Amino acid sequence: MSEEKSLNFIEEIIEKDLQDGKHETILTRFPPEPNGYLHIGHAKSICLNFGLALKYNGKTNLRFDDTNPVTEETEYVESIKEDINWLGFKWTNEFYASDYFDKLYEFAIILIKKGLAYVDDSSSEEIAQQKGTPTIPGIRNRFSERDIEENVKLFTEMKDGKYVDGEKVLRAKVDMSSPNMHMRDPIIYRIKHAHHHRTGNKWCIYPMYDFAHGQSDSIENITHSICTLEFIPHRELYNWLIQQLAIFPSQQYEFARLNMTYTVMSKRKLLQLVNEKHVVGWDDPRMPTISGMRRRGYGAAALRDFCDKIGIAKRENLIDIGLLEFCVREELNKTALRRMVVFNPLKITITNFNKEEEMVSIEDNPEDPNSTHRMVPFSKEIYIEQEDFMEIPPKKFFRLYPGGRVRLKGAYIIECNEVVKDNEGNITELQCSYLPESKSGNDTSGIHVKGTLHWVSKAHAVHAEVKLFDRLFHIENVAEAEGDFKDHINPNSLQIIEKVYAEPALLDIDIQKKYQFLRKGYFCIDKDSTKEKLIFNRTVTLKDTWAKEVKKN
RNA sequence: UGGCCUAUAGUAUAAUGGUAGUACGACAGAUUUUGGUUCUGUUCGUCUUGGUUCGAAUCCAGGUAGGCCAACCA
Question: Is the CB of A8 under 7 A from strand B?
């Protein structure tokens, strides 16, 4: 048990807290706002929060931060739960900040009664103006001098719906000259006559983030409240409120959010892509959402592995999406069923093959020593990939060319004898001969060939549609780029091949299973598939060192 | 030009005053019935200037660079 992996800074804090007896056990929480679908950045936070609890024998609550009824919907709640489940984590309690609205209201009254909160009638512009700037202290207005009774009365009336949206707010009375803008009498309650996805029309005032999050943490006895860097300035207020209310002292810790190359990681931008139909939905396979990646065929284990590999720190980062793809391939290589599928067929007639057909046995996964096998029909007319033949081959090309030999995966070695062309000079067919003694697994020919090609028997081929995805944006750092982020959308991020030619075994579909189309990449069944029309999504390509070689020359 | 956070290889992330390591990438090679996988090797780094110390990526001070903060969003 030599756990050599070093601790991240949060684990260090936790181990110290446990050692010092500050906490007997830890309680974390994952606090999404149900106003969009979860993305890979959330996965980092989920793996952190749930992972910590798992590691230190603690617990994790799922708590929806639903304090803004205008943007929040039940559809999002459902998708979030599905995504966390799929990632493989179990929450101890499912809570909602809205569960605490009564309690939060009481907290506000306590603050008012302590003279630490007041009702302000100013407009949002006035409040902003009075707040000052980082270099100029803010000033308090006359409303801040209202006495406690009046504040209680006014706040009660706010709750009772006596005022319209924006007419009044409740502010904490902290420090208008603090260098921390969040301490300059922050708004803690605002009026919103809006229907809430859980509390319906019960409330027309809603607490702000700062007056809901920390208090919810405290109510649940969260020991380590982990959030992203941009909340650092909120920590002072978080602590101040907990102290004034004299409630359980949860503590906030911040880590750097995930940024990834060639994509965006903000719910606002993702929502825009969805609403403006740049993608088909939140679960479009090109989206960095968890549901998009799931639909694309990324495995949950791969996502977890990725989150583990990128680490936790406080430094701004931009992770190469190639690392995610590495994790995805690593998982799929071990688990995907191999199948042969030809995308751009080139017909080959094997002139000396005179049987009707011959079934050859091919392993489903060569990585698995106990792999099952399937039977694949071989016959006189087969298809190979157009790109696997060149009339004038470059150096180091070890696929088919006139006079050259290749092995057909799981079958025989063939030699190209003749190139058949149409009137315009297009290659329409190859005439080849096979070496009967070169059969896979029983090769007595003594001949070694460099290349092995995938192939499909023409008479037995079944069909499917294939979707090939490329990066959604064509620049690395979308967030830093000039202008509107949508100007950098890759117009060729989706390529559809309507008819590919596959070996019959592809019809034995298992929706759960992932596939590797030999030499083409990893694929999975898309949810839009029907019995009549199978649609496969390309999860990720195989590493292609030959393509790199070609590029170099 | 107020406050706060951060700075280690191309990208991430370790080293917690004592040999700068790991992963991905890149490059080279071996193996291979997937130009996949696997294996081996190579390349490349402590932002800067001082200070403390026998010894500094680490501690201190100044500088520089990047990020965050002035929503009735979270």
Answer: yes
Residues A315/A63, Cβ–Cβ less than 8 Å: no
Domain ranges of chain A: 25-255, 267-337+463-552, 341-454
> Considering the entire predicted model, what is its pTM?
0.97
What pLDDT digit, counting tens, does each position of A32-61 carry? 999 999 999 999 999 999 999 999 999 999
Q: Which residues contact A261 (CB under 8 A, 6 or more apart)?
A: A318, A319, A320, A321, A322, A476, A477
> Is the complex ipTM more than 0.95?
yes
Helix (H) or strand (E) segment spanning residue A502? strand A494-502
* A33 contact to strand B (CB, 7 A limit): yes
Q: Does the pLDDT at position A3 exceed 60?
A: no
**Catalytic member of A159, A267, A329, A439:** A267
Q: What is the C-alpha to C-alpha distance for residues A336 and A115, in angstroms, rounded to an integer?
A: 65
Alpha helices in A164-320 (DSSP H): 213-219, 235-245, 267-275, 290-296, 300-310
For residue A497, say whether its CB is under 7 Å from any atom of strand B.
Answer: no
A402 Cβ within 7 A of any nucleic strand B atom: no
Amino acid at A328: V
Which CATH architecture best describes the domain A341-454? Beta Barrel (2.40)
Residue with minimal CA–C1' distance to B34 is A519
* Strand B atom within 7 Å of A187 CB: yes
> How many Å apart are A55 CA and B13 C1'?
20
A184 is catalytic: no
CATH superfamily of the domain spanning A25-255: HUPs (3.40.50.620)
- Residue A316 CA to nucleotide B63 C1', Å? 22
Q: What is the CATH number of domain A267-337+463-552?
A: 2.40.240.10
The yes-or-no answer to whether A25-255 and A267-337+463-552 have a common fold is: no
* Cβ within 8 Å of residue A291, ≥6 positions away: A37, A38, A79, A82, A83, A282, A283
What b/e sequence results for A383-411 when a residue is b if at least 16 CB atoms lie within 10 Å of its CB, and e otherwise? bbbeebbeeeeeeebebbbeebbbbbbbb
A33 as an active site residue: the answer is yes
pLDDT at A75: 97
Residue A149 annotated as catalytic:
no
Where does residue A329 rank: exposed (0-12), middle (13-18), buried (19+ CB within 10 A)? buried
Q: Which nucleotide is nearest to A441 (CA to C1')?
A: B33
Do the beta carbons of residue A409 and residue A379 sit within 8 Å? no
Q: Tell if A361 CB is < 7 Å from nucleic strand B.
A: no
Which pLDDT does position A15 carry in this prediction?
96
Contacts of A265 (CB under 8 A, 6+ apart): A39, A40, A41, A257, A258, A259, A288, A479
Q: Which chain A residues in 462-491 sit with Cβ < 7 A of strand B?
A: none
